[in-house]
Amino acid sequence: MIYPIVIFGSQVLRNRSEEITPEYPELKKLVDDMFLTLGEAGGVGLAAPQIGKNIRMFIVDCTPWAEEHPELADFKRVFINAEIYEQSEETSLFNEGCLSLPGLYEDVRRPVAIRIRYMDENFVEHDEAFDGYPARVIQHEYDHLEGRVFVDRLSPLRRSLLKSKLLNFAKGKYRASYKTK
């Protein structure tokens, strides 16, 4: 099933998500459906709040970048109950977009490296360090679990300049090439 993507302005994107257990109903189907939805929308990451579920789960698929970055050829992961507990002091700017804010792209400053604890779709625990593109995508999706979107990381002046665009999302005035709600 391909889920519609929740658009900026919806409260579900502002709520802090709840942890889940291995007993979460139809978890494998949800994971499969999220990857299907991500592929249809043409993104590299998708958090459960973006499909209307306030649970602490997101997926990342960096394989579309593999042609330019061969090390990402197999980078496709599920993150459940994740916790980023270390971040590098070094940061970098990168132009980010979000499926929940179709057509909006802004330079966002984030740490270049992180350390994260999480469980995969089989509830096997992981504790890993990531840098580069995977670290950036993971941080972007992790923000969704905390009720944040990438525009929250912009300067107050930049957010102010985007105010009318952001209001238009909430009013349903946007274009997306994928199913939204």
Please, could you describe this protein's structure?
The chain has 181 residues and is α+β, with helices and mostly antiparallel strands. A 5-stranded antiparallel sheet has the order 1-2-3-6-7, with helices on both faces. Strands 4-5 form a two-stranded antiparallel sheet. The longest helix is centred in the N-terminal third of the chain and has 15 residues. A hairpin with a 2-residue loop joins strand 4 and strand 5. The chain has a single domain, classed as Peptide Deformylase (Alpha-Beta Complex), CATH 3.90.45.10. The two termini are 15 Å apart. The chain is globular and about 45 Å long. Helix content is 24%, strand content 29%.
Strand content: 25-35%
The total tally of domains equals 1
Can you identify the CATH class?
A: Alpha Beta
Strand order in the largest sheet? 1-2-3-6-7
CATH topology title: Peptide Deformylase
CATH architecture name: Alpha-Beta Complex
Low-confidence stretches: none
Q: Determine the structural class based on helices, strands and strand pairing.
A: alpha+beta
Major sheet attributes: 5 strands, antiparallel
Distance between the termini: 15 Å
Residues in helix, % = 10-25%
How large, in whole angstroms, is the Cα Rg?
16 Å
Record field, number of beta strands: 7
Q: What is the N-to-C order of secondary-structure elements (H for helix, E for strand)? A: HEEEEEEEHHH
Mean pLDDT score: 95
Shape: globular
CATH superfamily: Peptide deformylase
Q: Number of helical segments?
A: 4
